[in-house]
Amino acid sequence: MNITDMILVTENHKGNETNSLMDLLDFIDFAVKESWLSLKELAEDMATLGMTCGEKEKWMESCFAENTTLSARYCADEKQLEAFLRGGYNTDKEWKFDEQRCSENCLDSLNVLGISRDGRLRQECGMSGQMKKLDEYHSRLRNQFDFFYTLSQNVFATDSIKSEAVKAMYEEFGTGRQEVFLKNLEGGKYDSGFTHETTQRKVR
To answer: What is the enclosing helix (H) or strand (E) of 9?
Structure first.
């Protein structure tokens, strides 16, 4: 499992914050079963989560139950993962990391990467340079498409949520079909976004 496949999740219940790491399917299962204030708000929040794939700072934030708020985003890179595990995004000094809420494959990935549950013991990855950055960019796009596609096919999701997911796929990728998306991705159709992103970094 790639780092960019992980979803960083923080639940704040009456000021008590709990962190966890989830994969796409577990997060959708969690989200659909929880009590959002409205179906429209749930659809909007899920769309926002999908958009965090290409952003460093953006989070999905929602009041999804009484006295409870939820913050979530796709992990951008190893540095952000380590910061999250150290409580770098928490406001509660007594926050906790709950392994029971985490997806098993996320915890397995921490072990493979050599990152402890508190964000220490960092281990550098082997791939480097521009190819690594392009690979990470492609991974973010796959995560984003897979998120919307899986949500659009989820039997527990409402029609409005599925509709928002399909709309997001066509707005971002011009298609809602997996085979077309993968063909476009492999053919470099979306790489102009990577060039634009790299240029913006240089300007800054």
So the answer is: strand 7-13
